[in-house]
Amino acid sequence: NDCNNAIFIYLFSSSYDKFIVLWKINPTNFSGEKLRVMQLQSEISDIALYPDDSHLLAGCFDNNVYVIKVDFQKDILQIVATLVAHDNIVNSITLDPLIETTGRFASLSDKGRLIISTFNRNENNVSILYNFEDFINPKHKCVMCRKKIDWSVDGKWVLSVDHHQIQKQNVIHAKLINMNTLPNTQALIGHDSPVLISSFSKCLYCENSIEGNNEEFQLCATSDKNGNLIIWKVDKDEFSVLVEISNYSESNVTNMEWSKNGEYLITVNSSGSVCAIEFNEFSIKVSNRSNLLTPALGG
Predict the structure, then answer these.
(1) Cα–Cα distance between 248 and 137 in angstroms, integer?
(2) What's the longest Cα–Cα distance across the chain?
(3) Which of 122, 148, 198, 275 has a CA-to-CA distance to 174 between 20 and 30 Å?
(4) Which residues pair with 22 in a beta bridge?
């Protein structure tokens, strides 16, 4: 909010042109004004913004993840730390929902390396919590197909996608990391082709049909290279298939997002289609974000 009581929205955009742009959007007439343009040294593949808007993370083609401090009062973007640990293009970044407390984030590079890192805001440095080198598929050629890893709303699970091998065989599944039991992982088996996109719902659910049942669970969606979609029910430490939709998309899904209230899953694909799936068979727990999140212990 500006002093004249006008309401504005701030938007970050990035591109392969190496620029990050901070926009000021007037929602009344949806007009935009560039407030700040920042050029990085390499093409940008993904960005992720802290929940409190204090920092922005950018993954790049130069194999690095840059931590950028955001000052909205002065319209300043400043690189304060860099993760130099990947050996190929950083494809996807996801933040721990509790990142303001834990500082944790995960990054995936194009050949499958997943790194869990922590950023210390007081000292402006990044340290590696765990580097999953065994996820790497060295035979995979970097094609920069869009991938998306995600972190569950309770801070417990990280779901990594694409080209993860099992016992050095070319069997490709998504990989689940339980942040309470690092470095143990498990395969999420259900797709017949490489899983590219994953997305956890932003709230908790419980069953409508069972009276007095307050058992809570999460939902997670995954889509593979052939456009098949699976909705997973995440109940405590178990992932089970809730719905499987074969040939859901005529082309590969490039992104998925859940609505904040958990009622809709929005998907887009490389053919230009936008679809929505409604979830109305569950009771949705909507409460303060802090009540939904429980800190994971980490390793």
Answers:
(1) 27
(2) 62
(3) 275
(4) 12, 36
